[in-house]
Description:
Multidrug-efflux Transporter Regulator, Chain: A, Domain 2, 4 helices
Amino acid sequence: MNKVSTENLTKLYYTIGEVSSMFNVNTSLIRFWEKEFQVISPKKNRKGNRLFTVKDIENINKIYHLVKVKGFTLDGAKNSIKAKDDYSHEENVIDNDSIIARLKAIKEMLLTMKSSY
């Protein structure tokens, strides 16, 4: 099964039935993953029905790919997701530092140009 494309999702919330049919799995598996993975946190309405956001579906997509496609164990998938989250946070810090350095260099260049006129 290929990844579920979240680009075409237009609704704010999706029921567990809709999500399970997207991935062609039982609703019980989605409920199980919800308990096992903290990154899945659907809202619940007054009746207690789960309402999944696009972000939840993206996270289920990651879990599905790791567990069903790559054959990871649940612990392995949890560690992989945590490692990727930690890495992406560090990557953003590095990007911010490089952007600040570039902006300072541009500022210096502009000040030099301004003083030469």
